[in-house]
Amino acid sequence: MNLPIDPTLDRYGLGRLVPASVREIWANEATDFTPWLAENLDLVGDLIGMPITLKNREVLVAGFRLDLLAETADGRHVVIENQLDPSDHSHLGQLMVYASALEPVAVVWIAREFRDAHRRAFEWLNERTDDGVRFFAIKLGVVAIGASARAPELTLAAEPSEVQRATKEIAAPPSSTSRDRMAFFETVMESVARARVGFRKPKVDPSNWVGFSSGPFGHYSVVLDRENRVRVEVWLDCEDRDRNKALFDELRMDAASIEQAIGAPITWDRKDERRASSIAVVGALVPLGTSRSADPQVAWTSDMVITLLEALESRLRHRALALRER
What we know:
Elements: E1 17-20, H1 22-25, H2 29-39, H3 41-48, E2 53-61, E3 64-71, E4 77-82, H4 89-102, E5 106-111, H5 116-128, E6 134-145, E7 151-158, H6 162-171, H7 176-195, E8 209-215, E9 218-224, E10 229-236, H8 241-253, H9 255-262, E11 267-269, E12 277-285, H10 296-325
Parallel strand pairs: 4-5, 5-6
Antiparallel strand pairs: 1-6, 2-3, 3-4, 6-7, 8-9, 9-10, 10-12, 11-12
Helix pairs in contact: 7-10, 8-10
């Protein structure tokens, strides 16, 4: 049987990316785009290299309303301001007010287009400020392939450059322990990226953890505790305490089949005193200086990351969205 010919494809079955109007998808910034962005913060987190979850919308700060206030796994603020129009001086000024009041680890400005003056302003801020805060300008677009469904397109218009990061690290170099931990995390994430198609390798900072693959359910992370014992975990944070506990309880009821799929016992931590919950698989002690892909703890950690993603990713996203709709 001959299949119908799609006129949008060439003879190799390839189509062309076609830009669509942002306003056709989101007619209103406050009632359409901001709620959508709040539900899809994993797109922003992947782009800026830090898993983030929503803390609040329309936050009143010094007489202005911040569109979205997000936070990292360790509770640091991420300021997000968005526009469906080209960037303007007013939003740039508001972002400076939000940054000074909330002392975020990252300032994110999303707009349909960025004027050169505003893009250069963010580049200048990245050059002049310390490593405690980073400034990201993200251009918003919508694309489709022929007559297919449309998809959001987020691209970085300004971010801290590798040269800027390196300069800051020279000014305040991490300790030898931090360097060893960073090397371990880098090697693990590189190993996962080689083995799993589409995995976006996160940026690694001088810390005892690295987060990745965030979504409406929260995010994953690899953690080294004070004794350098490795832990691969899923941080469940659906923005609401009741939803978090409901998702945790659903997973806990199915603990036997989940642990069988993972091939390892899980540490279940409901964290009744906190908004979020977590599940984790605990490994062995990691000797400092372990940074080769052949090292047993690197191999175990990268394998466990892949196993958790394959066993839980689809289920977590589906259930988190279903709980939110409920």
